[in-house]
């Protein structure tokens, strides 16, 4: 009873402070911006957003959300690329893999990913976001354990399929979570930060592989099985941590005080991407289908991940084919992770300086194209130069967090955001299904056709990013020319379930 009274009182305070009419009360309550208090005595007497309060709340958000999201992404990348390290540890010989079977193990993960993406999209709108994410982490950790029990190709196919199904919910979950807690310019840095853990995962994976390779071979517990057991145990433990500590939205974040929750909600007003609404709206679905950006995002992610699907599964093989031993390959392979981290930092600086995502994204693809050309053009005797080219290719991941944060800040409407997220994930996993198949056994050891495909796909991805920015430019100029500044919109339209097309005061970021 007390909770209900306090919640109603808080709603009234918010409406009073923002000038919202009583007619919008139901929409505000449905948007997820109402915070519950233990008692009326906890409710702040006044509500004034100051810069000092804003910085304090942002700091508290960063201290909890960034470590949790970053560690989860690190484990996600490490676990899904564990097959690459297991290859270095002899899994192909032990399971008797032949022909394209290893390539299919790389692709089957993303077939599961592809099948599960719409399902995750549905549940991410309907259920408690962070707990749903945590459950997926715990279960995929258990599946990773089961990799160690595989003794043939069929068993490994099953494990990789379910690993893909479970990991498919993480990236859309974190895109939504970042959009709920952070402002537009903050999203670029934060998304890039947690995405950079992919690079750190490559460094950590190389160290783990190097350490296991240094141990004596044990017939009862093969080296690659040790890898899966260690990673599985860490993942299960961390999934439990996520379940108890990761918040789902600003209004219910228990680590914030009641006043800080109000501030966290108010901070999001300028983003204009709506509150948290659980109703699936067909009108928003059809608006998404008619939006050309949906297809540009899809093909940008699809093309980039055709390249990604190959290098993440064949990375150790590519490096060893340059003429390095297995232990040297494990160590040298860490350089690609370090390269990715450095390029992401450079990309963030370019994005912040230019105030655009497209400049940094296209720059990263151009650098990756240069790296691909070096791998092909340099003679086989120049293994150091070819390795440098391969490392330079890892500038391409810079564009991914920029695309994720771009989507989070340029699409409004709960259903529309879910549709865009699902389509982005479909592009991601379709590209990663195709990618390993470009590395055909008959093209070994140099895989020239695959490397040519890599270069071409980065060019397509660049064109798509430019296309998105041009659509935004045209729409913004149209709204400015027509002097559409949101006249007649409710004062709390930022928290209502309106799309970016419906909200004429909305301006698209570049």
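^ Assign residues to that structure.
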């Amino acid at each position: 009873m007390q909770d209900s009274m306090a919640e109603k009182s808080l709603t009234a305070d918010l409406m009073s402070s923002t000038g919202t009419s009583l007619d919008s009360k139901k929409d505000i309550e449905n948007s997820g911006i109402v915070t519950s208090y233990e008692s009326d005595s906890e409710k702040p007497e006044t509500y004034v957003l100051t810069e000092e309060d804003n910085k304090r709340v942002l700091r508290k958000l960063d201290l909890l959300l960034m470590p949790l999201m970053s560690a989860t992404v690190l484990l996600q990348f490490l676990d899904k690329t564990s097959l690459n390290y297991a290859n270095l540890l002899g899994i192909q010989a032990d399971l008797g893999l032949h022909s394209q079977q290893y390539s299919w193990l790389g692709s089957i993960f993303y077939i599961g990913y592809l099948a599960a993406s719409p399902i995750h999209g549905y549940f991410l709108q309907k259920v408690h976001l962070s707990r749903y994410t945590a459950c997926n982490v715990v279960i995929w950790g258990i599946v990773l354990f089961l990799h160690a029990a595989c003794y043939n190709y069929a068993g490994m196919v099953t494990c990789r399929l379910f690993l893909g199904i479970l990991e498919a919910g993480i990236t859309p979950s974190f895109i939504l979570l970042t959009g709920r807690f952070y402002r537009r310019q903050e999203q670029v840095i934060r998304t890039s930060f947690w995405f950079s853990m992919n690079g750190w995962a490559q460094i950590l994976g190389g160290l783990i592989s190097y350490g296991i390779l240094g141990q004596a071979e044990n017939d009862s517990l093969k080296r690659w099985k040790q890898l899966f057991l260690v990673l599985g145990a860490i993942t299960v433990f961390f999934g439990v941590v996520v379940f108890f500590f990761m918040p789902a939205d600003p209004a219910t974040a228990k680590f914030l005080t009641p006043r800080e929750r109000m501030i966290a909600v108010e901070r999001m007003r300028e983003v204009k991407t709506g509150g948290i609404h659980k109703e699936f709206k067909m009108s928003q679905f059809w608006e998404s289908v008619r939006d050309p950006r949906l297809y540009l995002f899809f093909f940008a992610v699809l093309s980039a991940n055709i390249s990604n699907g190959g290098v993440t599964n064949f990375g150790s093989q590519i490096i060893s084919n340059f003429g390095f031993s297995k232990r040297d390959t494990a160590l040298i392979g860490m350089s690609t992770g370090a390269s990715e981290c450095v390029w992401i930092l450079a990309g963030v600086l370019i994005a912040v300086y230019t105030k655009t995502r497209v400049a940094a994204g296209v720059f990263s693809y151009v650098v990756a194209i240069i790296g691909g050309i070096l791998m092909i053009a340099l003679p086989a005797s120049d293994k150091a130069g070819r390795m440098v080219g391969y490392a330079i290719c890892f500038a391409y991941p810079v564009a991914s967090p920029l695309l994720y944060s771009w989507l989070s800040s340029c699409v409004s409407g709960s259903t529309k955001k879910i549709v865009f997220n699902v389509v982005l994930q479909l592009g991601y996993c379709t590209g990663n299904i195709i990618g390993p198949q470009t590395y055909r056994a008959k093209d070994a050891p140099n895989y020239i056709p695959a490397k040519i495909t890599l270069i071409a796909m980065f060019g397509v991805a660049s064109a798509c990013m430019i296309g998105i920015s041009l659509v935004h430019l045209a729409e913004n100029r149209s709204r400015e020319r027509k002097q559409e500044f949101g006249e007649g919109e409710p004062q709390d339209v930022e928290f209502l379930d309106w799309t970016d097309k419906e909200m004429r005061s909305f301006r698209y970021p570049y």
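The chain is about 70% helix and 0% strand.
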